[in-house]
Structures are given as structure tokens and as C-alpha cells.
Amino acid sequence: MITLNTKLLSPFLRPGDYTLVAPRVRLVHQQLLARKCKGNDLLGWLDLPVCQSNTEIEKIRTAAGHLAAKAPYLVIVGIGGSYLGGCSAIEFLQPEWQPPKGRPAILFFGHHLSSAYSAELLNFLQDQDYCVCVISKSGSTVETGIAFRLLRQQMAKKYSAKEMRDRVLIITEPGVGSLRRFAETERYPHLLDHPKDVGGRFSVLSTVGLLPMAVSGIDIHEVLQGATAMRSLCMKQPDVEENIGLHYAASRYLLYRKGRFVENLSLFDSSLQMIGEWWRQLFGESEGKNGKGIFPSTTMMTTDLHSMGQYLQQGRRILFETFLRVQNQPDRLVVEKSQKDADKLNYLAGNRMDRINRTAWEATALAHHEGGVPNMTVAVKQRSPACLGRLFYLFEFSVAISGLLLRVNPFDQPGVQEYKNNMFAMLGDPQYAHLKAQVKKKLKKLHG
Ligand code: PA5
Question: 339 and 291, same structural domain?
């Protein structure tokens, strides 16, 4: 259902390269499976496809059913790992402009600090009937907190206090986070757990990603079944070239060692755009530390062949490319013959749109290879929940192996705190008051 074709990595990589690296790949594979690797307190994602009980899945379905039945709009509030997984699943499986019948349209909020977006969204929601699902593992993320507070301000004017509570679902970690405390002290009745041993960017197969999918009518059981199948393959097969998770990770690692520091994920279907965003976070945040890591970038094809194509073909040779494509599209759109052929496109007559896109991928892969860009292709059989589950698990597994090969902890993100320290100090958060004078001084030096 998902394949990896590495033919166009040759001659940049040779079979002997894989032979040399195989023992180390096998070692980190075993360490990961034995939970004896760096960051092993955050390995809950490894078992998510198989460890969630029917009762837990039923809880997700019930909460989703409640939100779906209550209002025509659902606002999902969250950022990073608390937003990208669910959003990318919905975009992959459903047309952008129309939610399935009987399902709410899903809007996203709290994934940045744009005041224009916030004002426009709240203005729109003013006259709509809506529910809110707020997702935050820590419960203290500022973007999420502000968006939720703004929504509560508005909801308090539209609904009774009891009704407002009934329209809000909170997903956060059990314990003492601010959102948890808020939900409990303010008695919000709909509360689900973000698993403690799963980091944000690895949470798509937990309640965090499954809830938005279930609200949209996506069969979450099928998503988990797909992920389970990929999990078995990734866990059980020790041979690097037979195990797609190890093969992808080893190829990236070898390319990195040969000076290919950028991986460009070329998305050959518009339904993959947000999956690209999810992938970018997963790989960037997992690998980029201690001065190491492949920089993950994405392009949307064929759109970006008309903008970034030039750089890919002839720019600095520090990159490699991974094409991500969907093999079978169910539509049968055909370019028909025109009598006059005024637009000179009759040479395409009789071709399915999907075939033309496939040809564009083949032509691009060949041209980039000849231009000095090693490339490989991950092909997803179709846009189905099962394929999506496989894809999510494949990338999570690969980045874990890849990070461990680089000798970094793939499951932490110590670097994301740096700008927050400055920002919170400047905004007056009392917990960061001790940094305020220092940050001000540094800024004065920079800006005069
Ligand atoms: O992967 C991560 O850890 C981050 O992207 C988080 O998901 C993101 O910062 C949001 O954090 P939280 O879920 O605590 O609000």
C-alpha cells in the first residue's frame, strides 16, 4: 500500500553504502524496539495503533458525535503537534470546500498570532452556531490560550454558561497543566486525555488526531488498522532494504553524510499539502539539534515547478528530494479532443488528468536526477484512511531511526524554549520577570 522507490538515488548512493551502514541501523532499530534509546520516556507513539482500547476509541467517537450533532461549525484550537495531524488527515481525505453531509465544517484557530485572521474569524463566527475543541498537551501554549480565551469571550455573549460548557471539548494531559486546572475548576464536562508518554508531533494517532478525524466522519478504526500494519512491518523486519521505515531512514542518513543537508519533500497531489506541513514539523523538530539534522523543506507540485523548480534543477547541490505521490486517483477526468484545437492541446486528448500528473512526476524525477539531485519516491496507493494510517506511522518510525542514527534525541525539543523566554519576559509573564531587564538590554544593543 506504500512503496519506496530508491532507484534514482543511484549513483549518488551505491549498494555498498547500505551494506556499510546496515549494522548501525540494525543496532538503533533494536534499541528503539527495546525502548533503550535516547528519549525513551516519550515512546508511547510506538504502540498507539494497538494499545488504545475499544472503550477509549468509543469515548473519542462519542465526543466526536456530540460535537458533530450540535453545530454546523467546529473550531479546533491548537498549534504544532496539537493541530497539524488532524488538519492534514482531513485535508488528505476530504475535499477542501465541502464537509461530508451531516458533518460540521472545521475551522482552525490558535495556530499563529495573526490579529487580522483572529478578528476576521471571530467576526464570521459571531453569527454562526459553533462548538470548540481545544487541544494542548502542556495546557500553557500561548497561541492556543489566547484563541480559546477570545472564543470564550464571544461564546459567553451567545450562549448560557451551561450551554457554552457543553459546546467545548478539552484535550490535555492529565496532571497539573493550566488547561487541566481550568477545565476542572470551571467544571467543563467534556475532557479527554492527551497521552503523557507521547510528544505533540507524534500524537496524530492518539485522541489528538483521531478526534478531529472522527468529527469529520473519517473511519478512525481504519486509520489505526493501516498504522498497525505498518507498525508490524517496521518492527519485525530487520533487513534494511526490506523494511521501508529503515530503508527511508538509512537513505536519508547516507545522503546527509555525503553533504546533502536539505530534504525537499515534493508533494505530487494537492491533498498532500498539510501532510507536508505535518512531516516538516516531525522531521525538523526531531532532528534539528546539537548542530545536526537534515533541513526539511516542502514543495507543492506541479505548482512549485513554476517557482522553485529552477533552484531544484540548478541551484546549490546540497539537497536531495523525496517525492510523495498518490498512485490511484478514483476520478476519470479526461482531456477531450477539440475540433479546432485552437489551444494546441489536442496532443493530450484522451489522456486522464491523473496520467498527466504522473507523467509530470516521472519527467521531474528524471530531470532533477540528471541535474544532480538524488531522489526517491514514496507512493501511497490511494487516498484512504488505511493508507493514511500507514503513512503517518511510516514517517514517525523513520524519523525516530533517523534521529537515533544522528545520535540526537528525536523526541525532545529543547531549542523551542529560547524565543519563548524572550517573548514571555517582554510580555510581562511574572514567571519570566527575572529575564526582562537582560532581554531589554540585548534588544537595545541590537536595535539602538
Ligand atoms: O511537537 C510538539 O511538542 C509541539 O509542536 C507542540 O505540539 C506544540 O508546541 C503545542 O504544544 P501543546 O500541545 O503543549 O499546546
Answer: yes
| pLDDT tens across the length of the chain (448 residues) | 999 999 999 999 999 999 999 999 999 999 999 999 999 999 999 999 999 999 999 999 999 999 999 999 999 999 999 999 999 999 999 988 888 999 999 999 999 999 999 999 999 999 999 999 999 999 999 999 999 999 999 999 999 999 999 999 999 999 989 999 999 999 999 999 999 999 999 999 999 999 999 999 999 999 999 999 999 999 999 999 999 999 999 999 999 999 999 999 999 999 999 999 999 999 999 999 999 999 999 999 999 999 999 999 999 999 999 999 999 988 889 999 999 999 999 999 999 999 999 999 999 999 999 999 999 999 999 999 999 999 999 999 999 999 999 999 999 998 988 898 888 889 888 889 999 989 989 988 888 7
Same domain, 304 and 167: no
Q: How far is the CA of 188 from the centre of ligand 1 (A)?
A: 22
Give yes or no: residues 51 and 186 share one domain. Answer: yes
Distance in angstroms (rounded) separating the CA atoms of residues 298 and 267: 7
Active site residue 101: no
Q: Quick count: other Cβ atoms within 10 Å of Cβ 342?
A: 8
Please list, in sequence order, all residues whose beta carbon lies within 8 angstroms of the beta carbon of residue 409, skipping any fewer than 6 positions away.
Answer: 38, 39, 289, 403
Q: From the alpha carbon of 416, which atom of ligand 1 is closest? A: 9
Q: Which atom of ligand 1 is nearest to the CA of 78?
A: 15
420 among known catalytic residues: yes
Same structural domain for residues 163 and 193? yes
